[in-house]
Amino acid sequence: MKNSPYLPVTLAVLGLLCTLAVPASLIHAADAAPAAPAAPGQPPGGFPGGAGGFPGGAGGFPGGAGGFQGGFPGGAPAGGQRGGPRGGGRGGYAIGPAAPVPPEVAIPHPTTEEITQAEAALNRLAETDPATKSLVEKYPGTTFSLKPRVNIAATYTQTGQRNATYAGRGGIGRHYTFVARANQGDIDLLFHGDSITDWWQQAGAQGGKEVFDKYFGGLKVANFAIAGDTTQGLLWGLQNGEGQGFSPKAIMLMIGTNNTGSSTGPQIAEGVGAVVMEMRKDFPNAKILLLAIFPRGAGPNDGARRKNDEANKIIAKLDDNEHVFFMDLGPKFLDPTTGVLLPGLFRNDNLHPAAPGYEVWAQAVKDKLAELMK
Length: 374
Fold this sequence. Notes:
By secondary structure, the protein is mostly helical. It is built from 12 helices and 5 strands.
């Protein structure tokens, strides 16, 4: 291949050629429908590896931030060990249907024409380049496909956090207690997210209950956040009873940090955008205070923090100063010189606020929430 005149093309499609070892019948076994445009889980695990997609890195093909959203499926049915992404969260449910994504956060995808052109080029390469042709002949029946991989973060997927019994009392899962609470109505302010929001209800030095009682105890608040959940789990919950039966005046939303293990920053942003769009549909009269995902990790170079920072820059575009209001509290938690979390505000895991962190949070949002609830 060193002296091949097709070397540039060969290198460009090297990641795709790795899928030749996968039976054609399984190439899309792990896929769901592509994210629906408005007009992101477990590790994708496919080729060429990681979230960068084809041909490698964030650029992808033909130039969108998410590329092919995680490379190509590794060839196992959904939930399998190789390339078969599960729904995320605890429990690993099958991936659900794609959710609409606002154009402000949508990842560019190749057009049908671009996919057709690229597939034709790959087939020509397979027919004429000796090295590539030998691989194709070695695995007969294999076909190329450039179908974009689904962004799990922007799907309606039932995660383990919303199964029949997860973290519930008396054998009833929290999702079902949320649905029952939603059906009771009389909720003015909704808190939603993951453990960072869930633990407003946790008492003691490591939780936010005392701070909550101090600032929000006199309000009609419901907290539907579940520790460990993701954008896709929240989307499923909203679609399955948590988004019906009541009409809050305001919502405080922060979600996405649990997507960092399997999604890129742009994919997380799509997931957050899908949640905001779903909330706008379910609660058309509510004002949404969309919080930037909190900083985490030992410093500014922490991998998960960098993904969240990238996502935050994108979801800030959702602020329309009418229905959605973006607020970044990150600087209030960080040393401005080092970017390290300020002492005492977070637990030792550098992820969850301790009581003093909840105090900073409450002071930062109380006036804005009062304004939005008028």
